[in-house]
Amino acid sequence: KRRKMNKGKIVRWAAIILIACALVGIMVLNAVKPVDHSDSVWDGSATLGKMDAKNYYIYYTDLGCPYCNMYSHWLLENEDEFKRDYIDGKNILYEVRVTDFLYEYGEHKPDMSRWSAEGFYCAADEGKSWDYYRTAISALWDDYLSKGIGTSKTAPMITGMTADYWKKIGHKIGLSDQFDSCFDEHKMVDKVLANTVKAAGKVQGGLPYFKFGKFTTSGLDPDGGWSYVKKLL
Question: Which residues contact 133 (CB under 8 A, 6 or more apart)?
Fold first, then answer.
């Protein structure tokens, strides 16, 4: 009987050890499993960094949003430093998600919100959404923001803008007739609306809205500048 009991104990301990080893093996495999954000990204051409980056930052914006555009200007004005110190230095995948949030949900519904989003997604259809975003922010800065127009809720509003403003941005980055057709025929309206509705389910507190890993925040200090952006990052 004693031999049978000892044999039973040995079998039980062996089983426990095997289970423990299996659990440790699973944990190790999960720990070393490559990260891949590609299934989460809305638009690969609107990203900086690698899909297997350790950290994933998301920026929700609307090109009709004054505070969004100030943040975007500060970041893009320092794009080289941003890429060096944050994208490469801190192993970040950074994605810009453009919406027409103000057009769909705002009290004031600027047409530029809808036009700019359509232009962005038409550019995305040719793999050029980051180029479109960067060029749009540069144009807005030169034409309006640098003159104190459209920089905040209390600043003078952008007026007199036409849809052609956003079409010309596509021309500046060398987009083809395909872009003109996409924009003129409003081929991306459904996608703009779908992504705006999707964003509305995630954004809390308004735009700009940031998701830095598990940390989220919204809003902006319009006098913040690049040092403020770095604190956010």
Answer: 46, 63, 72, 96, 98, 120
Beta-carbon contacts of 3 under 8 Å, excluding residues fewer than 6 positions away, are none
> Which DSSP letter does residue 124 get?
H
Which residues neighbour 80 within 8 Å (Cβ) at sequence distance 6 or greater? none
Contact 56, 86 (CB under 8 A): no
- Taking the C-alpha atoms of residue 125 and residue 127, their distance in angstroms, rounded to an integer, is 6
Average pLDDT for 141-165: 95
Q: Calculate what percentage of the chain has a pLDDT beyond 90.
A: 80
Helix (H, G, I), strand (E, B) or coil at 93: strand
Q: Provide the 3-class DSSP secondary structure of residue 160.
A: coil
H or E element at residue 96 = strand 92-98
Of 24-38, 40-54, 156-170, where does mean pLDDT reach its minimum?
24-38
Strand partners, 212: 57, 215
Query: Contact 49/192 with Cβ under 8 angstroms?
Result: no
Q: Which residues contact 99 (CB under 8 A, 6 or more apart)?
A: 60, 61, 62, 117, 192, 195, 196, 199, 207
Q: Are 61 and 208 in contact (CB under 8 A)?
A: yes
On whether the CB atoms of residues 99 and 199 are closer than 8 A, the answer is yes
* Helix (H) or strand (E) run with residue 48 in it: strand 47-48
Place of tokens 């093996």: 25
Question: What gap in Å lies between CA 189 and CA 121, rounded to an integer?
Answer: 9
